[in-house]
Amino acid sequence: MNNNNLPVRRAAAAAPKSSAIALTPNELVPILIGEARRHRLAMACIFAAIALLALVVGLAMPRNYAASTTILAQESDIIQPLLEGRAVATEVTDRAGIARQVIYSRRVLEEALKTGGWLDDKPSPLKQDRLMEELKGRIVVTSPRPNLIQIAYRDSDAKRTYDVTERLSALFIEESLAAKERESREAYEFIDSRVNDYHAKLTEAEDKLREYRAGNSDAQPGSVTDSNTRISSLRTQVEQTRMQLMEQRSRVGAISAQLSGESAVTAVQTRENLYRAQLIELQSQLDQLLLNYTEQHPDVLRVRHQMADLQRALVQEQQRRAAAPQGTSPFDQAQMNPLYQELRSQQAQAQREAAATQSRLSIAESMLNEELARSHRIAESESALAELTRDYEVNRDIYQDLLKRRENARVSMELDREKRGLTLRVQDPATMPLRPTGLRFLHVAGAGLLAAIAVPMGLLFLRARFDPRILSARQLQQATELTLLTTVPTYHSPRDRRLLLKRNALSIAMLVVVVVAYAAVFGFKQLAAA
């Protein structure tokens, strides 16, 4: 055992730890070299362990292959401007979100599992759900541009990665077009059912409106205007008739006043001539009345009755004269005044006109009252008619609008059925991955070698930097404040040299093992790649 440094170690032990002095770079480098020589076997063991561990990790690490496909979504084509306003185009804002919903659906994932061969062993439903969750984690759906959809998939098997990626793109296009066609068909069926419902409502509203108008004659279009016009006309007629009646009554009064000042008898004449004169006057009145009235008019009937009475009186007078004795005077003692007769005739004419005017006034007032009552009935039925008409118009407008929408939905459905609307095509198809992605064996092996070199060197530096022992002559002088005369180098005994040779041999053997292991693995990798 080497005891040459014993006084130095004792002095370092006697010195307080708080008085440790930092090493300078010129002192640290020789100390690091000396420590590396002294601990070469430990450093070689650490280097070999880390390097071989990295090699094993690199070999055991699964390889990841990635494949991707890009799908182009085309919205505008020659059909869109031709059918603008007729067909409803599907507008998609978040294509990546919609693609995730389609691809992450259970049906698509089951097809992907079948394509990848996971269902060949017929796993349990629980294991299938676990496989689907793992599959979701390896699928990445992005949208580099608004009209592009990129589907990427990674797996440990290159062929399976390609097959699953290709199948996912095909399933996405198929499901997207099927969902779009299904959406347009459901929209058409919904609008068609609404059209049938509102057609029934419109028919019911038409029947109610027709029944109400049939049961209420006053509930006809234009009844209010017609009633108001007729009421205005009847009021005007009543006012004019009243004015005529007032005039005729005034005329009757004037004739009566004039008639009161005239004598009825002016001369002596026979009764037969008197009756004849009266018959002539009544005949004149009858002719005048027949010009204005019919045979059933009261005045005409009255004049005819008077003429019949005068004719009977005339016949009786002729019989009386024929039976009278000879020598009797044929003249009576009285003779009618012609002016008086004229005034009486005018008075009777004025009274007849006044009576006729009074009759027309009564009829006009009766008609006016009936029309006013009709206007009240029209006003009462107007609210019910307005409600029925409003229901009919609302149902008609909605029905017509739904008819247009149904035709638009029909055109959209036909476009989706013939794949003429939104088109999806593979812009960049998936290719068979030739090299794995991510961290590969070369990366792990290189990092392992760097770590195998850095860790021992770092441990050696930490040991030399923070070792509390005195490792240089300057530290000893500053710690003991004594004068250092000289330093004695270390001399190895034959036993120490044999131990050093064994340690060197073991260290070199470990390094050779690491080099051979790395060379063998890299050679095998090259042969496998070839």
What do these coordinates show?
The chain has 530 residues and is mainly alpha-helical. Among the domains are: 21-61 and 439-467 and 492-529, no CATH class; 65-180 and 412-428, Alpha-Beta Plaits (2-Layer Sandwich); 270-333. 70% of the residues lie in helices and 5% in strands. Strand 2 and strand 3 form a beta hairpin. Helix 2 crosses helix 13 (441-466). It is rod-shaped, with a radius of gyration of 66 Å. Residues 1-20, 76-92 and 330-334 have low confidence and may be disordered.
Structural class: mainly alpha
Task: Please identify which CATH superfamily of the domain at 65-180 and 412-428 we are dealing with.
Answer: EIF_2_alpha
Percent of sequence in beta strands: 5-15%
Using the coordinates shown, work out and report the CATH topology of the domain at 65-180 and 412-428: Alpha-Beta Plaits
CATH classification class of the domain at 65-180 and 412-428: Alpha Beta
Number of helical segments?
15
Q: List segments where confidence is low: pLDDT < 50 over at least 5 consecutive residues.
A: 1-20, 76-92, 330-334
